[in-house]
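Hi V.,

You were right to ask for the full record rather than a summary. Here it is.
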Amino acid sequence: MQVFKFGGASVKNPDAVRNVASVIRHYGEKHLVVVISAMGKITNALEELTQNYMEMNHEKVMEKFHEIKDFHLEIAQKLFEDPKHPVFFHIEQIFFHLLRYIQEPPSRSYNYEYDRIVSSGEIVSTYIVSHYLNYVGVANQWYDARKLIVTDSNFRDASVDWILTPQLANKALSPYMAGSNNNKPGIVITQGFIGSTNQGFTTTLGREGSDYSAAILAYALKAKEVVIWKDVPGLLNADPKIHNDACLLPNISYQEAIELSYYGATVIHPKTIKPLLSRNIPLRVKSFTDPALPGSIINNISENDNKVPSFIWKSNQMLVSIFPKDFSFIAEKNLSRIFSDFAKHSIKVNLMQNSAISFSVCFDYDRINTPALLADLQKNFNIKYNKDLKLVTIRHYESANADKMFENYTIFLEQKSRVTLQMVLKPIEKV
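Predicted structure:
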C-alpha cells in the first residue's frame, strides 16, 4: 500500500480538488492512505482567528470566522450540485462547534487554544475531499487522524507515541488495507498536522506537519512508499523564486534529505525522514500539476548527494547576542541556563556561535514566544539583537561563488564546515 500527501496548494479551490481526485484515480494503488492539509491559506487564517480570540477581540474573531466558513462553503457549492448533499451538513457541524468554542473566553494557554482551533482546517478540508471522491466514484473512508496518531501534550509541537500510534493505526486501518472481501473501500482519507493525547486533547505536530503525518502512518502501516504531491516538479536545489537556475534533484539519500530539512528546506518537513529511514520506505516528491513527470525520490542511495549545491533561505530571523552581566566567560553553566530558557519557550535554534564572553543565537522570530524568551534572558544576561534578518544555508558550496553571490549583503554571522556554509545576513540598503 501507499501513502499520498496533498498540501494546501493542491486543494486550494474547486479545480484543485477535482485534480486531486484525478491523481488519486490514475496514480494511486488499490490500497491507499491519503493525508490532506487545510485548504489554501486557511491555516494562516485560523492562526489569525486564534490570535484575535486570545486578545478577546470578538469583532475580528467573528469577521475571520465567517470569512473562513464562507470560503469552504463556496468551494463545496461549486463541487456539489445538490444543496442537500451530506457534505454541507458536515461543514455546518464543524463550524457550529467552532463557533460555540470561540464564543467562550480563552481558558487555557495560547498553544492549547491554537491546536483546538487551527485543527479545524484539516477536518473540514478532508470532509470536502472525501465526499467529493465518493461523489465522482472513488470510494473511500474518512478517518479522524486524532484516533490514529497519539502524542504527548506539548501543544503546537507534539511528540508522537511510537508504541501506541502503530497499534491504533493498524487496528483502525488494516481492514481497509487488507484486500479482503469485507466490502470496505481500499482508500482512506485522513488529516495531516493533527493528533491527540491519551486524554483526547487535540494536538498539532508543528507547522507544515502534514508531511510528518504521512511518514508516521507509512511507518505504522509498513507502506511500500510515500508520495508527497507538490506544486513543483520534485525536489529542487533552490527556491526558483529566488534562484533562476534552480534545478531538479532526481535522487538524494535519506541522510542528505535530513540535512536539507534540518536547515529549512520547505519541500520536506524536518521530522519526516526518520520514520521512513527506519523502515527503508522510499519518499517520492511529485508534481500534482504534471503527475506524469518522474519527480524526485529519497532513499538509501547517496551517490548523487554532492553533485550540485543546494540553497536554503529562511526569512523572519532574529539574531541575539548574549553576554554575562559580570563579564565572565561563556561556560557550561551559562550555556545550560541559556538553553533552558530556549526550551522553556519552545524556540528552536537555527544557528549558534560562541566566543569567550558572548554567545550568539539565530532563530525564527515568534510574536508570542520571542518577547517572553528575551525577558527571561535579560534576568541573567545582557543581550543585543537584530530582527528581520535572513539565514541562508548552502550545502556543497563553492567559496568563490558564495563570496560573489552575497557581496550586496551585510553579513552578521558566518559559519563554515567542509560541506555546509551558513550566513545570517541582510540586504545592503541602497541610498
